Amino acid sequence: MFEKLDLSKKIDDDAYAQGIEPLHTRIGVLQRELHDSGIPVVIVVEGWNASGITLVINELIQYLDPRGFSMHSIGSPDDEERSRHFLWRFWKRTPARGRMAIFARSWYSRSLAEHVSGIDWKTGIRHSIESINVFERQLADDGVVILKFFLHISKEEQRRRLDEREKDALTSWMITRGDWDFHKHYDSYIPVIEQYVRKTDTHFAPWTVVEANDANFTRLKVYSTVIRRLEKKLAKAKENKQNNGGKTAGMKPARNDVTREAEPPVTYSREEYDRLLADYQEQARDIQYLLYKRKVPLIIVYEGWDAAGKGGNIIRLVHRMNPRGYDVVPVARANQTELDHHFLWRFYQNFPRAGHITIFDRSWYGRVLVERVECFCADNDWKRAFQEINETEELFVENGGGLIKFWLEVSRDEQYRRFMARQEDPLKQWKMTEEDWRNREKWDLYEEAIDEMLARTSTPAAPWTVVESNDKYFARIKTLQTLIDYGEKLFR
Question: What was the pLDDT predicted at 116?
């Protein structure tokens, strides 16, 4: 791939000045149009050390409104970032609608740096490429424009630039031992970098490889490509608006192998319940310790009908656990900042680090439940979410995480009984809202959404556990037992 590039391409200063001037004006206009259209943009600039990444970005941002973009210079991860999947810190930096995020190096450099020196680096790179393609496709499906540039220079040109910088007192601080080490391995890194570029060059996030031996040619090619791609996106957005939003996501028929039952198969006396509860809570604490020692992150998802007992269940689950080792995240309706991002963005913020447990009291499944039923999102959005959820959960598990998903099922009659009990109890009246009663009126619509959710998202990597919750004693014991069984399989 790289050997076919003509690195002798040059543009003289006069031709460069004449070509770049109209682009400076145009990019400012496009930025305002993108903002008004609510279109987010990600610009990735990668390349060899000393290939001119900083120079290109400085030229690019000079005529942008600084209030409308964020610049991310990516270096080595800190301890917090290192304890999570390598894409976690990039998900956090994805732009809101109408904004730009510019990355001076990105998930590609970090993936290469973290995997190329590993024992099983070929497998690591393959997993990274798969993760990156999913990440970029999910962003693109949500309307993000992704522009990726790789600045290619010859080995000789890289040596010349490194030598020049090292001899200059103003730039010598920029050169590190790592730059020279990377230069020494230039020839061995070329096929690895080509593999990344080739296998992540997709229609939704294509690469532009730039012949970067000449600074003028490099800057003009990047600038003109950015302008062309943004104009194309804006034209496409206008066309879709005229056609009422474009295509609707199609879905294969769902197979539902998950049965919802509200009545438990057995019941426990208070004495049996207290004995089992104490025993299982001790074992749950042991599982937490093993997760911590072996640096395994665990996500526990609680979904279920209103008044199904999620809160009380979580209280019993964590009763004997070390509070420094888990977080409980209650999920409410998204605020405006969250709505301006991909719907998974706010959940990624709370994904657990290695050895930690995060318990979601409601979760990303709101997209295919309440947001679907209440029409808080377009049909295309919730239909697309099934695939995005499955991909996200599978990648989390494949990268060493654990995931348990509970659906707490209660009957319609039992829910009504609990609603009335809450309204009559002064200590529980705060739990009841008008929204609870409105949701109950749409019981049949929610049942349809729940069945489809369970059918489409109960996967080998992340199966659902339905908890028969008409009996709270049974429900609490079952969730604890499920955690213990999961932990024993994980550490077998």
Answer: 57
Q: How far apart are CA 309 and CA 448, in angstroms?
A: 21
Q: Which residues pair with 300 in a beta bridge?
A: 359, 404
Residue 248 within any structural domain of the chain = no
Query: Which structural domain, as residue segments, surrounds residue 397?
Result: 270-490
Shared-domain flag, residues 66 and 155: yes
Is residue 230 within 8 A of residue 145, CB to CB? The reply is yes
Contact 406, 479 (CB under 8 A): yes
Number of C-beta neighbours around residue 304 at 10 A = 21
Q: Cα(207)–Cα(45) distance, rounded to whole angstroms?
A: 10
Q: Pick the closest to residue 41 from 233, 235, 241, 242 (CA basis).
A: 233
Q: What does the alpha-carbon distance between residue 396 and residue 402 come to, in Å, rounded to a whole number?
A: 8
The C-alpha angle 27, 30, 34, rounded to 5 degrees, equals 140
Residues 6 or more apart whose CB falls under 8 angstroms from that of 486 comprise 287, 402, 404
**pLDDT attached to residue 119:** 43
Residues of the chain whose pLDDT is less than 70? 114-123, 244-250, 255-256
Query: Alpha-carbon distance 144 to 342, whole Å?
Result: 9
Q: Are 70 and 16 in contact (CB under 8 A)?
A: no
- To the nearest 10°, the Cα dihedral for 193, 196, 199, 204? -120
- At residue 436, the 3 state secondary structure works out as helix
Q: Cα–Cα distance between 416 and 446 in angstroms, integer?
A: 16
Number of domains in the chain: 2
Closest CA to 212 of 108, 56, 106, 63: 56
Give the phi and the psi of residue 188 in degrees, each rounded to 5: -80, -25
The answer to whether 310 and 410 are in contact (CB under 8 A) is no
Predicted model pTM: 0.91
